[in-house]
Amino acid sequence: MRLGFDVGGTKTDAVVVASSGEIVARMRRPTGWGRDAVVATLVDAVSDLAAEVGCAPVEFASIGIGMPGQVLPGTARVTHAVNLGIDELDLRDAIGPEFGVPVRAENDVKAAAVGAFALRGVERGAQGHASSMAYLNLGTGIAAGLVTDGALWRGARGAAGEVGHISVDPAGPLCRCGQRGCIEAFAGGGALAQRWARPGALPVRDIFDAADDGDPAARELRRGLAYGVAAAVRVLVLAADVELVVLGGGVSALGDRMLNLVVSELEASAAASPFLRSLHLPDRIELLPAGSPAAALGAALIGATAHEQEALAHG
User: Fold this and answer.
1) Neighbours of 102 (CB within 10 A)
2) Banded model confidence at residue 72, pLDDT cuts 50, 70, 90
3) In Å, what is the CA distance from 309 to each residue of 62, 215, 220, 284, 295?
4) Tens of pLDDT, residues 249-260
5) Which of 55, 141, 155, 231 is 20 to 30 A away from residue 252, measured at CA?
6) Which of 252, 208, 216 is nearest to 232 (CA)?
7) What's the predicted TM-score (pTM) here?
8) What is the DSSP letter of 174?
């Protein structure tokens, strides 16, 4: 059995994955703030999950951890995880000796891409299982992970899928990166909340509700979100020709309210382009099911060896 963790800014999702690839236990708990608190969250969760499945922590084959920030490929060294209050943390050193189990980390979006690919394969079986997929995370920021035949594609310097700061409108809204019209400036939850600038626990949902009620500012923001997500889908398909783009992250919780607008935007952009129509972009996007453990599962798979990853991903 293997452990997988998705460490987010507010909660940590953890799963135990059997050798068959089946998730046999799952746990969620609040994430602590700062290096020591994050490590304590992980250590306690390892012990609790071991007790739940009736084994000692040392009996787990590996621990994989998905976290925001930058992760050196093949390591457990995380840097710039600002949403967790961490400048640098080597998780292998921090929790490996505690349990005597191999530890590996990965960026959370990339881990979710691996997990989403595996989950879709389980749901659809061999037939209908795309060999290439992009997972587009629509959260506070925008980023994607790319998977081909079950293997994560990181690119030459680990930046593959970082589509959020591609400018798609030089006259568009100012982005925190200094450019104008970035995909993230249009569709990132943080940018939308800043531009909405009204109190509320769920600003993007509030924008959609206000747009439904006819608020002109909300309608413009909602239109921009659909434009930004559609642009990201086009970039991912045109750059990597993935068979499928799976939309996940907090903004995707809007479900069909968002997806239908994105599909309409893709159809409108293809209306004047036979080439874009030939790509059938609206047929190549779908939503990650709400509550999916994709990132935690992906982290568990990444914690395995390359051979074991393939066996777990394809059953």
Assistant:
1) 17
2) confident
3) 12, 49, 44, 25, 15
4) 999 999 999 999
5) 155
6) 252
7) 0.91
8) B
